């Protein structure tokens, strides 16, 4: 990717209106399905059709390790990244089990895992054996940041070529709530204290240290908040960059993309900074338990579909939210219309 200049064809207002009219004609109170209606309308606008295409779906689990994980910012051992990458393909992780329940294919993509995953079925797009430790040096080079965005873009393009109607993005990367917080802090211009959270659960003492690590890295490397690639390079992660690429490719191809939790919000923040309005192509599955979630989602102007206190990542919330899309498909295919029943409202 030389220059990130996506060619977005826009959201169809006429398809949005037609979908809302279709829903308003169903035998129920106007607006009675609330956010589910907004969801169907959004998908219609992105896909530019009122025949919602949602049957074939694919969740990407972008996996990578983080130098900063060695700085004591996470409760979880580093090896969990590669272990869960393999376990996902075996069907035994949170995302894999929820994907099974929601008829979703899962692809695991190695964009920087600190382990040899060859021969496991994990897709190899490895940039390096993890990022550098942002305590000591920038997480990656500018060129690596572009490479990881390209990797995510290519994976998404392949999935769209394979006929997928919906794309979902999850991740595995022990320590990655630290770069996600750093990105959100820099782009939103809010203090690290307001966005650094407990990740996969740490003590208050470790939380203070994690916040200090983010503050110090931002101070030392001075990421340019007007250049999202620079922010990704200095305080980001490979799987976050890959998500950015997938988001751009999905939007270019009029394919709705479902974000997962906090790490996806960071990717969306970078993508929106690169391409203003790209959030119109995004759906947020759930409200992550991370403390920075509200700030990030307010900035993105996106509302999550679910609020269940989830904080697993992997794509678990994204695949779970497919049940709401399937519910809406059932509504559209099975319900009587007001006309069928000769119902007229008198306000
Ligand atoms: O999606 C979220 O909101 C989320 C919140 C907390 C943790 N995670 C997952 O847990 C890992 C990062 O947590 P941590 O504490 O190691 O930074 C990483 O693999 C994420 O997928 C994910
Ligand atoms: C087991 C385990 C699985 C995970 N998946 C995402 N983050 C995780 C953290 C842990 C600890």
Automatic annotation (TrEMBL):
Its EC number is 2.4.2.21. One of its GO terms (molecular function) is nicotinate-nucleotide-dimethylbenzimidazole phosphoribosyltransferase activity. It holds the Pfam family DBI_PRT. One of its GO terms (biological process) is cobalamin biosynthetic process. The keyword Cell membrane does not apply. Pathway: Nucleoside biosynthesis; alpha-ribazole biosynthesis; alpha-ribazole from 5,6-dimethylbenzimidazole: step 1/2. InterPro entries: Nict_dMeBzImd_PRibTrfase (IPR003200), Nict_dMeBzImd_PRibTrfase_bact (IPR017846), Nict_dMeBzImd_PRibTrfase_N (IPR023195), Nict_dMeBzImd_PRibTrfase_sf (IPR036087). The keyword Protein biosynthesis does not apply. It catalyses: 5,6-dimethylbenzimidazole + nicotinate beta-D-ribonucleotide = alpha-ribazole 5'-phosphate + nicotinate + H(+). Signal peptide: none annotated. Belongs to the CobT family. Catalyzes the synthesis of alpha-ribazole-5'-phosphate from nicotinate mononucleotide (NAMN) and 5,6-dimethylbenzimidazole (DMB). This is Nicotinate-nucleotide--dimethylbenzimidazole phosphoribosyltransferase. It comes from Secundilactobacillus collinoides (Lactobacillus collinoides).
């Amino acid at each position: 990717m030389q220059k990130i200049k996506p060619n977005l064809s826009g959201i169809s207002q006429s398809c949005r209106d037609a979908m809302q009219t279709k829903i308003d004609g169903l035998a129920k109170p106007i607006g009675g399905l609330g956010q589910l209606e907004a969801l169907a309308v959004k998908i219609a606008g992105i896909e530019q059709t009122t025949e919602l295409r949602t049957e074939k779906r694919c969740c990407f689990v972008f996996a990578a390790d983080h130098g900063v994980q060695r700085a004591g910012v996470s409760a979880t051992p580093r090896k969990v990244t590669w272990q869960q990458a393999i376990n996902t393909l075996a069907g035994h992780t949170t995302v894999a089990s929820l994907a099974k329940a929601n008829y979703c294919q899962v692809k695991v993509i190695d964009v920087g895992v600190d382990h040899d995953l060859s021969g496991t079925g994990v897709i190899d797009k490895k940039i390096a054996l993890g990022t550098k430790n942002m305590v000591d040096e920038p997480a990656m080079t500018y060129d690596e940041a572009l490479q990881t965005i390209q990797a995510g873009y290519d994976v998404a393009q392949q999935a769209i070529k394979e006929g997928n109607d919906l794309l979902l993005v999850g991740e595995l990367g022990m320590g990655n709530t630290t770069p996600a917080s750093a990105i959100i802090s820099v782009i939103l211009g809010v203090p690290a204290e307001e966005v650094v959270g407990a990740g996969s659960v740490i003590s208050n003492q470790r939380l203070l240290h994690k916040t200090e690590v983010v503050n110090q890295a931002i101070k030392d490397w001075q990421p340019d908040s007007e250049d999202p690639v620079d922010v990704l390079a200095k305080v980001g992660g490979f799987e976050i960059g890959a998500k950015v690429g997938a988001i751009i490719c999905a939007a270019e191809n009029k394919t709705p993309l479902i974000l997962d939790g906090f790490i996806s919000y960071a990717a969306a923040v970078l993508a929106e900074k690169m391409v203003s309005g790209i959030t119109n192509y995004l759906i947020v599955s759930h409200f992550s338990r991370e403390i920075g979630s509200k700030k990030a989602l307010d900035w993105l102007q996106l509302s999550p579909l679910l609020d269940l206190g989830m904080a697993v990542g992997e794509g678990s919330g994204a695949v779970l939210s497919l049940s709401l899309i399937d519910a809406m498909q059932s509504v559209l295919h099975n319900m009587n219309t007001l006309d069928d029943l000769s119902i007229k409202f008198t306000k």
